[in-house]
Write a structure and sequence with these properties.
about 325 residues, alpha+beta, RNA Cap, Translation Initiation Factor Eif4e, eight-stranded antiparallel sheet, 9 helices, about 20% strand, globular, binds 7-methyl-guanosine-5'-triphosphate, translation regulation, protein biosynthesis, TIF_eIF_4E, Eukaryotic translation initiation factor 4E
Length: about 325
């Protein structure tokens, strides 16, 4: 499916969601405490009434037009903020293997058959245990979903969440992925149990807000397409892994072809944004250690070969 162009208010909403989340994280880091509340009002959260004398921001124009967004009325909003494109959440876990309906942690969501996307047939075996949870296309639906699923820190071992653009399945074989690759970081579980949920939230917000590869807003091409196809969090016995999948992967063969150099720069920008703005590591900080990796990029073709003689990019 083609990416749509985001109208101004939706862009503002997505950006606001990401910026507020990042500000929330930075404020918590500065204050030395762990953030516990979501960055923007969540549709099913109850807010306290204002204290007497508290100054409230009122959007006069929206009020005059009868528009109630989730920002000024979290329970009775009548306008949603559309995303650039719809996204689908997928899930797999040892507890869902071989079952038609996942029992935990998302049993509330009905199952639908695998969509017939280009390349889907080749991935049938791989996709057998990956359950499609839901597709959403607005900021509000995202929060509705987020508030109703289990956080990565609470998932069983070997579980994965996959958040992919609608029409792209989370498989190397999908046409949108087969020339691509992934940025990923591996984080030891014992040191990151308290961080992984926020890291996954910020990764999802950067994906749906299209801040990883902001070509959609650059206006340079007739119909620009983001390089991002999806993001994944994986829970493994000793570590968590966060990944960002891209449509294309630079060849890393020393080819100085202009298009290749541009692609490499564009892919490197995604990795830097991931490390610095989304995960909040200082750019020069070394991350690799026991069970930990740097933020690394590898093509899916190399992943298929299990990384043998793989060429990697690293954000250092
Ligand atoms: P993984 O779960 O991405 O890696 O892939 P991990 O976490 O290192 O391994 P795990 O064994 O701890 O889960 C695991 C294996 O699944 C790969 O080695 C492939 O055999 C297979 N696999 C992974 N992906 C992403 C795909 C895919 O997109 N298509 C197909 N056909 N197989 C895949």
């Amino acid at each position: 499916m083609a990416d749509s162009t985001l109208p101004g208010p939706a862009l503002a909403a997505s950006r606001a969601a990401l910026n507020a989340a990042i500000a929330d994280q930075q404020a918590a880091e500065n204050g030395g405490e762990s953030p516990t509340t979501p960055a923007i009002p969540e549709p099913n959260s109850t807010r306290e009434s204002p204290e007497p004398g508290e100054i409230q921001e009122v959007d006069m124009q929206a009020q005059a037009e009868g528009i109630r967004t989730v920002f000024n009325d979290p329970t009775n909003f009548n306008v949603k903020h559309p995303l650039y494109s719809p996204w689908t959440l997928w899930f797999d876990s040892p507890s869902t293997k071989g079952r038609n309906l996942p029992q935990t942690p998302i049993s509330a969501f009905p199952q639908t058959p695998l969509p017939q996307t280009p390349g889907a047939n080749a991935a049938l075996g791989w996709m057998e245990d990956i359950k499609r949870v839901i597709t959403f296309d607005s900021v509000e639906e995202f929060w509705g979903l987020y508030n109703n699923i289990v956080a990565p820190s609470m998932l069983p071992q070997k579980a994965n969440y996959y958040l992919f653009k609608e029409g792209i399945i989370p498989a190397w074989e999908d046409d949108a992925n087969k020339q691509g690759g992934k940025w990923s970081i591996q984080l030891p579980k014992d040191k990151n149990r308290g961080n992984v949920d926020k890291m996954w939230l910020y990764t999802m917000l950067a994906a749906i807000g299209e801040t990883f590869d902001p070509y959609l807003t650059a206006g340079e091409e007739e119909s620009p397409q983001s390089l991002i196809t999806g993001v994944i969090v994986s829970v493994r016995p000793q570590f968590y892994r966060l990944s960002i999948w891209t449509r294309l992967a630079p060849a890393l063969s020393g080819n100085e072809d202009e298009a290749e150099v541009k692609l490499r720069e564009r892919v490197e920008t995604i990795g830097k944004h991931f490390k610095v703005s989304v995960l909040s590591y200082p750019e020069p900080q070394k991350l690799a250690g026991p069970l930990a990796t740097e933020v690394e990029f590898m093509s899916h073709k190399d992943s298929e070969k299990k990384g043998k003689s793989a060429k990697k990019l690293t954000v250092l």
